[in-house]
Amino acid sequence: MTIDKKTTEELISNLDNTNPIFFQDRIDEAFALMSPFVKDSKDIKDRLIKEVLNPVSHHMLEGAIKALSSVINEEKVCDIILEKTDDDDICIRATAVEVLTSSISNDKICEALLERLNDDFCYSDVRIEIVKGLFDLSSNEKVRDALVDRLNDDDFFVREKAILALSSEIDNEKVSKAVVNRLNDEYPEIRNIAEKVLGSSLNNSNKKNIGFVYQI
Asked: CA 84 to CA 18: how far, in whole Å?
C-alpha cells in the first residue's frame, strides 16, 4: 500500500500530538491508521520502533508492538519485540508474545521463542503463551523436544499446555513416556489431562511397548 510523504507526516504527527494519558482512544486510532502503512513507510516503521525502545507510556508501547506485527519477520523488529517478553508489565509481555507467535512458522522466530522458552529467567506467563503458540508445530522434532522438556516445568499451567500441545504426537515413544510420567504429577488436574491424552491415543500395542498398564 503506497503512502506519500505528506500523509506519513500527518499520521506521525497525529500520534505525537495526542496525549497518551487522557486520550487513549485517540492513541488507539492513531496506531490503527498507521498500521496498514508500516511495510511501505520506513518513517512510520522507525517511529513505531522508537516508541518500543523508548515508550512514553505502557499504552503507547502496547500499541506500537501491535502495529509492528506486519513486519515481525524483519530481524531487527523481531529482536526488539522479543526483548519485551521480559518486560515488567504482564500486558506488555502478553502482547509481545502474541505478535511473535502469530508468525511462529517463521524459522527464525520459532528458534528465538524456543530459546526464550528454555531461559531459566523467563516469566511463567510467557512460557505458557509460547507453548500455546507451538501447538501446530509439535511434529517438528526440535519443537517436540522443547515441549517434552516443559512437561517438567515448575508451573502447573505450562505443564498442562505442554501435554495438550503434545497430544497429536502421543504415538512418539519419547512423548508417550514423558506424558506417562505426568500420571504421578502432584496436581490431580495434570494427572487427569495426561490420562485423557493417553486414553484417547494409545492402543494396546504401544501400551505394552512403553511398559505401562493403563486402565481406560
From this structure: 24
Tens-digit pLDDT profile for residues 15-42? 888 776 656 788 888 888 899 999 989 9
**Helical packing angle, 156-165 and 188-201, nearest 10°:** 0
Given a cut of 90, whether residue 79 has pLDDT beyond it is: yes
In the chain, the amino acid numbered 183 is L
- Dist. CA 56–CA 208, nearest whole Å: 60
As a whole number, mean pLDDT of residues 151-167 equals: 96
Q: How far apart are CA 7 and CA 188, in angstroms?
A: 58
* Reported pTM: 0.82
Angstrom distance (rounded) from CA 16 to CA 27: 9
The neighbour count for residue 95, using CB atoms within 10 Å, is: 23
Report the C-alpha gap between 83 and 112 in whole angstroms: 11
Separation of alpha carbons 102 and 81, rounded Å: 13
